[in-house]
Give the backbone structure.
Amino acid sequence: MKSRFIVVAAFVLVAALMMSCATTGDLKKLQAEVDAASLKADQAMAKADQATRDAAAATAAVQGAQAECARATDAAARADQAAARAEAAAKLAEDNAKKAEAILLKGMRK
């Protein structure tokens, strides 16, 4: 009984080993899968590099736009100041014109 069990166990072990051995076809299939995964990884790396370059270009564009916005804000402030000065000058000119007219009318009455 014991020797029969050993013989059956040996056959089961040999059968299991034969089933688990990799064939050349299996190895080629595995190599093809590894190559495909490597290709996908390379493509993903290239896309990541391009995305990094695009992000850097976008950052530079944003910085340029911010600088342009600051210049526009400064120009608007200067324009507001110039408009205020022009308004004050116009009011002063109007007041002087009224005074001159009053002096002229006063001189004509005499």
In short: Helices lie at 2-20, 24-109.
